[in-house]
Amino acid sequence: MERDFLLSCIGGECTINRTCATYSTMRIRRIIIPFLLSITSICVLFVVLELGMRIFKPQKYFAISVNQWDRHVGTKQIPGIKGFIICPEYEIDLTINSKGLRDKEYPYRKPPGTRRILCLGDSYTCGYGVQAEETFVKVLEVHLNEQESRSNRWEVLNAGIGSTGTANQLALFETECYKYEPDLVVLLFCQTNDYYDNLTCGLYSLKDGILIKHDAPRTAPRKIQKIVYRIPGYTTFFARSHLLNYLKYRLSVTHRNRLTESCTQNVSTNNIAERYNTLTKHLISALGRACNEKNSRLIAMFIPVHPSMRGLPKTTELVEHCSAQGISCLDLEPHLREADEKNIQTSHLLDGHWNATGHRLVAHALYDFLVEQSLLGEVIIQE
Questions:
Q1: What are the phi and psi torsion angles at 309 (to 5°)?
Q2: What residue segments make up the domains of the chain, in order of their start?
Q3: DSSP 347
Q4: Where are the alpha helices (DSSP H) in the chain?
Q5: CA 329 to CA 377: how far, in whole Å?
């Protein structure tokens, strides 16, 4: 009797276990099947939209951006990331080192017997349009070590970051780049967009003639960027998607428009021009003082205004301001104009960035300027 009772209990337990297993299986199916259907639908939709873009609106510009929002400097390059730009005129890699520079690894502390030049600027300095070793920064480094290596070894560091202005570069120097102990700091100023970038980045404002530092504003597109970079395959498998590159471009435009709106609301065009001109002068002066405090000397190098841009201050106005501050100035306009008169193409036609020839020209113009100004000997600090 006890045996029959035990068997009935065991049988009942087995029946219960089978019922539970069946219920669990059904529950899992109710979750997994809709999930798989959703994923499949998304994939099919993506493929359809991607094919539509390739047929009706094919993209010519593909990029994995190496930039990210930063509270203190506005825009920084992501340490260790590997990006690229592919467009009809060129294909380049953008490999960023562990400290956020498009350069090889450098220790912060300067080695004995070494002199350093730190180059600040936007995409022209960073070298959009050429490979890293073709930038004027690295061409200058090679030339210095060939011509001026009798007493010192030279290191020229590329701290250029695309889509930035003098405001970002001042913040970058004060928070990070001073650590490299540069003897000379070269600021490449792009007059076509740096005035406006200084105003719209929101890092600095003027109050009673004094620069006030702010945290960088963070727009919705920048928040989205941080999320999508965590998606597996975003920087590899999906990198050449026409659909995603189009969406990235629209987000970039939205980001810039949001920043512009926040800085120009209820302000006339003339007042905007006056604001960014005055702000830029204060920023360059502040960078000169920051370099002075770190035993460096600032050199300002100016890219001429593009002929299509009107209403921007003349180069001579900034040169006069910098000279009054004891900042050495190199205007690249005569050098680029001479090349143009000789039918030497120094820039890419579509986006205007310098090609390898343009970077070599700028490197040699800068080297000649440093020699003429006796800046390769003992560093003279600005008063």
A1: -90, 125
A2: 1-56, 107-372
A3: B
A4: 2-56, 123-126, 136-147, 166-175, 194-200, 220-228, 242-264, 269-293, 315-324, 333-341, 356-372
A5: 17
269-293 and 315-324 helices cross at what angle (nearest 10)? 40
The encoded tokens of residue 250 equal 């629209």
CA angle 170, 174, 175 (to 5 degrees): 115
Domain 107-372 architecture: 3-Layer(aba) Sandwich (3.40)
Query: Which one-letter amino acid corresponds to residue 136?
Result: F
**Cβ(119)–Cβ(177) under 8 Å?**
no
Contact 154, 148 (CB under 8 A): yes
Q: Which amino acid is at 308?
A: S
- The model carries a pTM of 0.86
Tokens found for residue 243: 């659909």
SS3 319: helix
Parallel/antiparallel/unpaired status of strands 74-77 and 82-86: unpaired
pLDDT digits (tens, 9 = 90+) for 22-60: 656 776 777 788 878 888 888 888 889 989 999 999 999
Tokens representing 118 are 């730190």
